[in-house]
Design a protein that fits this description.
Number of strands: 33
Strand content: 25-35%
Shape: elongated
Bound molecules: adenosine-5'-triphosphate, magnesium ion
Helix content: 25-40%
Catalytic activity: tRNA(Pro) + L-proline + ATP = L-prolyl-tRNA(Pro) + AMP + diphosphate
Family: Belongs to the class-II aminoacyl-tRNA synthetase family. ProS type 1 subfamily.
Largest sheet: 9 strands, mixed
Main location: cytoplasm
Structural class: alpha+beta
Subcellular location: Cytoplasm
Number of helices: 15
Low-confidence stretches: 236-262, 275-317, 325-391
InterPro entries: aa-tRNA-synt_IIb, aa-tRNA-synth_II, aa-tRNA-synth_II/BPL/LPL, Anticodon-bd, Anticodon-bd_dom_sf, Pro-tRNA-ligase_IIa, Pro-tRNA-synth_IIa_bac-type, Pro-tRNA-Synthase_IIa_type1
Distance between the termini: 21 Å
Radius of gyration: 27 Å
Length: 562
């Protein structure tokens, strides 16, 4: 590929709304252009990176026995009504009407559609297991799209869905996907780790997230060095902290609860905008909110540090239990129920041991939270978020908190969708049974952004070869000199013949401009060919990632690359 004929509109300045480095560099390197909030055009260079990531995903999914399909992006409301999610999904679901006033949505995920496909086709246990996947555009009307490709409204996801005849089958399908994800993110040369996670609004009982470790990550990951336990702090239970009820002897005051508070109360209590509140568990004393466990966005996390408490959670209540205890009105989804073991304040154990339950509406809109059981609390005035120092884990290892970007998520769904949508098969005994499902997502466009978060310097991107748009860049410093051009062509052909993905900078630009752009777009190997070098019989080679420069003799060049 020749740069003069390949459209790479690099920029000196980053857009003013770009907060994180990947957003700045993706734009400056001419890889993406914003159309409107959270919606981007993938430019030629950006699309190449995304395609490289997608191909790694595709190869590993195929290897794991999944089959590629492509499902429609527009989905009829009926299916979502059948699964029960039409009312529960909340405003992230973009709803549209056709000319006959029929309801549709733009797919944020495809459980309903795939279940509809499989229930119409798969009848017998002999046809199971089935695992179908696609790499496709998703739409989620995110409350705060930001960080460029990291949290878009329109983005590319790989989503896979497994159907099994029994729990053992699901376990095997889940493990195969988990292993495939390990292979995928390793091949992409990302610094990542799998962590235990909540199942969120997709539902289901068991899940792992794959986190790319980066300061700009929106998630907090709790890691125990000694026992290799790692979890999203949303699930944070910090489960490896030891004795279940150490705190029971601590004197506590009885505080009577139940109370109800509105999102306005919570916002006022925390002194944050209402829109920032996503998921909250409020502790109420004497009718007043006294502390809150909040999952908000980034700014709110900082606020949370001032206000909050951290509780060690022993056990999650089932959604059914919570629904019953809170008497949450119909339409409430995502109930939370936590068995609190300990609450810390000021390094001191201030404790509660009882069920604390709440319910919130939808995924993003909190209407109210009610506490049904009495909670024993004391000294909440200065409650705050737990820090690394607060924990002395039972297993003897140190706990650390680190930031992560969720690039993948694997769920055991069980029969949530197959039950609601009547997705059945006939077993060996001729009896009708419900299929058992799993679902598995990877944010393909987010992967490229996360890769840049981990691989950059002040001059630009430092792509690892697997998701670099090209593997090598040949810089022609003297496009008007015939022997330089001839040498460039020779190198270009040689690399191509060896299967190297190569771009030649043959633009009419000064060397300074070429060097700057080369560092900005971050292609791993730079080969510099110029009249001065050729006169000395050398080509300069730079490894963009290490900055290491070396000289290769022109003569032995072909052999060096053989
Ligand atoms: P998040 O917690 O970041 O909102 P999620 O848990 O809602 O993500 P899933 O439903 O698990 O996302 O979707 C599977 C994958 O799709 C995620 O692991 C993530 O990599 C990617 N993804 C989700 N939302 C976005 C988005 N708005 N922009 C880009 N990628 C996304
Ligand atoms: Mg989300
Ligand atoms: Mg998530
Ligand atoms: Mg997720």
């Amino acid at each position: 590929m020749r740069w003069s004929r390949f459209y790479i509109p690099t920029l000196k300045e980053a857009p003013s709304d770009a907060e994180v480095v990947s957003h700045k560099l993706l734009t400056r390197a001419g890889m993406v252009r914003k159309l409107t909030s959270g919606i981007y055009t993938y430019m030629p260079l950006g699309l190449r990176s995304i395609s490289k990531a997608a191909n790694i995903v595709r190869q590993e999914m195929d290897k794991a026995g999944a089959n590629e399909v492509s499902m429609p992006m527009v989905q009829p409301a009926d299916l979502w009504q059948e699964s029960g999610r039409w009312d529960f999904y909340g405003p992230e679901l973009l709803r549209i009407k056709d000319r006959h006033q029929r309801d549709y949505c733009l797919g944020p995920t495809h459980e309903e559609v795939i279940t509809d496909v499989v229930r119409g086709e798969v009848r017998s246990y002999r046809q199971l297991p089935v695992n179908l996947y696609q790499i496709q555009t998703k739409f989620r009307d995110e409350i705060r799209p930001r960080f460029g490709l990291m949290r878009g409204r329109e983005f590319i996801m790989k989503d896979a869905y497994s159907f099994d005849k029994d729990q053992a089958g699901l376990d095997a399908s889940y493990q195969a996907m988990y292993d495939a994800y390990m292979a995928i993110f390793s091949r992409m040369a990302l610094n990542f780790r799998p962590v235990e996670a909540d199942s969120g609004s997709i539902g289901g009982s068991f899940s792992h997230e794959f986190m790319v470790l980066a300061e700009t990550g929106e998630d907090t990951v709790v890691v125990c060095q000694a026992c290799s336990y790692a979890a999203n702090i949303e699930r944070a239970e910090v489960l490896c902290t030891g004795d279940e009820c150490d705190g029971l002897d601590t004197p506590v005051e009885e505080v009577s609860t139940p109370g109800k508070c509105t999102v306005e109360d919570v916002a006022a209590f925390l002194d944050v905008p209402q829109a920032a509140i996503i998921k909250t568990l409020i502790f109420v004393a004497d009718g007043e909110p006294v502390a809150a466990l909040v999952r908000g966005d980034r700014e709110l996390n900082d606020v949370k540090l001032k206000n909050l408490l951290h509780a060690d959670v022993l056990e999650m209540a089932t959604p059914e239990q919570v629904q019953k205890w809170t008497e949450a009105p119909v339409g409430f989804a995502g109930p939370v129920g936590l068995k609190i073991a300990r609450i810390y304040a000021d390094n001191e154990l201030r404790l509660a041991t009882d069920w604390v339950v709440g319910a919130n509406k939808g995924d993003t809109h909190l209407r109210h939270v009610s506490l049904k059981r009495d909670v024993k609390l004391s000294g909440f005035a200065d409650l705050r978020l737990i820090t690394e120092e607060d924990v002395c884990p039972k297993c003897g290892g140190a706990i650390s908190l680190t930031r992560g970007i969720e690039v993948g998520h694997v769920f055991k769904l069980g029969t949530k969708y197959s039950e609601a949508m009547n997705c059945k098969y006939v077993d060996e005994q001729g009896k009708e049974q419900t299929m058992i499902m799993g679902c598995y997502g990877i944010g393909v466009s987010r992967v490229v952004a996360s890769c840049i978060e981990q691989n950059h310097d002040k001059d630009g991107i430092k792509f690892p070869p697997p998701i670099a748009p090209f593997e090598a860049l040949v810089l022609n410093l003297d496009i008007r000199t015939d022997d330089v051009c001839a040498k460039v062509d020779e190198i270009y052909e040689l690399l191509k013949s060896q299967g190297v993905d190569v771009l030649v900078d043959d633009r009419e630009e000064r060397p300074g401009v070429k060097f700057k752009d080369a560092d900005l777009i971050g292609i791993p190997m730079q080969l510099v060919v110029g009249g001065k070098g050729l006169a000395r019989g050398i080509i300069e080679v730079k490894d963009r990632r290490t900055g290491e420069k070396s000289e290769l003799p022109v003569e032995g060049f072909a052999e060096a690359f053989a």
